Amino acid sequence: MKLKSLLAAALLSAGFLQAQAQSGPYLGIISGYNSTWVLDQKLFDDPNYENRSTWNSAPFGAVIGYKLNPSSSFQIEVFKNNMGAEFDIKGSDIFAGEKKTVGEKRIELKYTSVPILYKFTSGEKVRFNFHFGPQFNFLSEGSEVNQINQRTTLNANLNSTDLTAADIAFYGSAPGTAIDVEIPNKSIVLDAGTYNRPDKNTYVASDKDNFNSTDIGAALGFGLEADITNNLYFSANLRFYYGFKDIRSDKWVEMEESRGYYDSRNNVTGGAQLGIHYRFDL
């Protein structure tokens, strides 16, 4: 009886020590690659644009966390993150003519991203993890440009287009005809070149000032972790992010609301994240 009690105590002690060995702080390095979107129904419906797949990197970052027990951890990540979207520009040689691809719209945003995550882990040497939490993004660069490859006519000055009456006044419009005298008020003619949106000559001097300096949203992910040694492990995760704030500045939003073109414009990403981590057992 005494021997059985001693064996039971030894097994319990071993289990406790093993659990303790799986707790403590950890550090890591991470890198990711994402499909990125800018959700804006007005932009999706704009006759001048056609959405296309956009891929961007979150090239490098660092992780610091604390493993409370074998299944629960909290961690903070800090990483460089590229977001945005690309669209084909659809124009024609004449007003209301046959549409063709004449260039591309690029929304390019560079952030320092800081997700604060709770992570649940199951398993031992190879284990599943699920994690979620808020993510804060701090803008370092931002721009939206229309790159036109040939002289073209686009729709303008309508609540279905992001090209405004100010653009028509600045760049000119397609000539009117006896059939439709409103053509000069409905179209814009652009030569090949790069055009900032909104146009910096009529709005602000800095592209970055057109965007919110912060973006806040929710991060969610899941994946696998595998031990390389007792304390060194590898992670491979799928990670998703949805931004709650409009990415544009208040002034830009007010301009779009005043002409009936406004719909919220939000960052969305989804992709893969890889990492190497080292845990310091207590």
From TrEMBL:
Q: Looking at the keywords, is tRNA processing present?
A: no
Q: Where is the signal peptide?
A: 1-21
Q: Which InterPro entries match?
A: Beta-barrel_OMP, OMP/PagP_B-barrel
Q: Which Pfam families match?
A: OMP_b-brl (PF13505)
**Protein keywords:** Signal
Membrane-crossing residues?
A: none
Outer membrane protein beta-barrel domain ranges (all copies): 6-280
Name listed for the protein in its UniProt record: Outer membrane beta-barrel protein
Classification lineage: Bacteria, Pseudomonadati, Bacteroidota, Cytophagia, Cytophagales
